[in-house]
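Feature request, filed as a ticket because there's no other form

It would be nice if the structure record came with a short human-readable summary line next to the tokens. Right now we just get the raw output. Example of a typical job, pasted below so the devs can see what we mean:
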Amino acid sequence: MTKVRQKREKVTTRFQMANSIETTPKLITQSKALQLKQMAKQNCKANNDDKLAKSVLEHLMFSYDRKTVPMAKGVDVKVDLMVQAISSISEMTASFTADVFFSQIWLDPGLAFENITKCLANLTLSHRTIDDIWLPNVCFQNSKSTSIHSSPTPNIFLMIYPNGTIWVNYRVKVEAPCELDMSSFPMDVQRCTMTFESYSFNVDRVRLDWFETAVIIDLQGKLPDFELTRYTWQKQQFYYPAGQWDQLKATFYFRRTYGYYILQLYMPTYASVFISWIAFWLDPKCLPGRVTLGVSSLMALTFQYGNVARSLPKVSYVKAMDVWIFASMGFIFFSLVELAIAGHVDKMTKDCQEETLEKKSKYYRREVSSQAYKATANTNEVDELWKICYRDSLGDENISKWPKSKWTAEKIDKLCQLIFPLSFICFNCFYWMYYTMESSKKMERLMDDTNFTGGSFL
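Raw output as currently delivered:
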């Protein structure tokens, strides 16, 4: 009997020890909670929030599990975006670079401390704490590169409210894509987008939506060659093999400011075309000077076009700049064609007059007193002498009354002095009206999306 009693006492002792081991964490938690409440009352009076915040955080993290989603039904995450600066838009990479403040707000009941203390309005924590809590893992889904600013520490803001609401804000540099369309360059409109989604969780676990003030524009400085005209935001859903994901999209619309290209491209082009027309006012006999003007203008235009084209992507379609350059080359080329035609007509006119003079001089004879000259003179020299004598006898007034061709080099030049400027003016009116209207229509087509909300700078 004694042995049996001893065995029973041992079993009872082991059972009591096991119970004490299981209840120890609970007892510790309860005791810490009691100590925390007592400290909270004291700190509220002493106004010592730092110690209280540290104690509250230690208490929350003691039993917190960051590996599981905070709520079984999933978490609703609100997102907002504040654009601080847009540093560049690159045609070569079809992307734009922006500095943004990216915020996420969600409810995590496991981090609520309103039942622990009423003294703290919130917990503002270091960026190092971000690794100790559960995150919805919202990412820039279409970014080419993303980096968190460090100046000198990572720019991450973390705040926990008493009811467990988490507010995380990142200051990020993002390179995102643009839908490059250079057909109206340099009067083009570009659309660039940022897309957000949870990388790890579908809609069963994380549901994304925009905050009330979804996108805020607070640009510091201006882009040298673009201006932000409009911006929109929208929510859509995307299906992957792993399920359905919420996607948030922010779209930015940019219009190019083409003042630089007017100075660097259009004004030199105007000068080249106008210089080529000076040949119309020069004497048709001054062929070397007229040729030099036309060829120099064409070479200058080609060189100018090459300088601008080197800074643009190699697209396979025709741009507005190409239309302008080739039309200007056409005007200069046709001025050279006119030079050739005028030179040819001038030569034909001279040949015709010489032929007429030769025929009429056959019927004219003058007595030559020196028979010896007749005998010794060359036949060609005699013919030329008859022509000179005949021309002298008629005088300039009679020669000018001879029938002439309808077209002469002078008439062609005068006609081109009128046709070329008028044609160039008509081309300019059509060109600028068409592409400015096309730019506005392009903006309307890009904005023709459904289910979006946005703002405008116009």
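Something like this underneath would help us a lot:
Confidence is low (pLDDT under 50) at residues 11-29, 363-373.
The domain at 261-446 is CATH 1.20.58.390 (Methane Monooxygenase Hydroxylase; Chain G, domain 1).
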